[in-house]
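S.,

Sequence below, as promised.
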Amino acid sequence: MDKIIAALDGLQYSESTRDYAIALAHHSKAHLVGVFLDDPTYTSYKIYEMVEQGGISEDKIRHLENNDKDNRAKAAEDFEQNCKQASIDYSLHHDRKIAIQELKHESIYADLMVIDAKETLTHYEEKIPTRFIRELLGDVQCPVLVAPRKYKPIEKVVLLFDGEPSSVHAIKMFSYILPEFRKLPTSVISVNPPNSSLHLKDNKLMKEFMKRHYPNAVFNVLQGLPETEIINNLKNEKENTLVVLGAYRRGTVSRWFRESMADILMRELKLPLFIAHNK
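The prediction came back faster than expected:
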């Protein structure tokens, strides 16, 4: 892997994104770009905070704007200092247009993006997955590592396999982008319908493929509903486990009526997710 981008909001700076991105760049000897989304339409303050007796206060506006400017500068400085401390190759981008559009464009030229699961790019709190994350994942042009709130060194990998091309594509991309993680303990989780056999889908082809990518992987075939069985299984994993999955293959309208597995995992678990989808 040659280039990682860390998507960062200087007004709600994610130390978790910083730490995952730096750790991955260090492992992969990759160039890390801190993409600071300084969208001018987004501020940390609300309209009513600018109002004093008699109307909107110019002094109050100036004070609030300067405070945002200072916080963004401090976030960029912290990122830069941590990159230097880790002795990695890095650069900073300050994107000052519409955040979601800028980030999608940046993703065209990246091997991997790291972003916090709770990122909103608004001053409002939202439930996970946020609207910003869902829109990003629906149209991003590179694999994404969605980071939980707290950083934990990755010590185990779980690959989700449902027999569909998207899940195999995600495993391929993870293998190509982060080959150093092939040495970690790895398991494959697959879920068959209730009352069916425990036979792995495409058993011969999948095991032949895995033998050359993750030869020591352990296979775990479950029965039931994927949304239930996968969550119940992963809840037993420690927070240093990374989950790999394909997601968001369906169109926008379809996602309104049926959640992606990635949405469910982001909401229910505190594990980092490596998400890749083929279009």
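The first helix runs from residue 15 to 28.

Coffee later?
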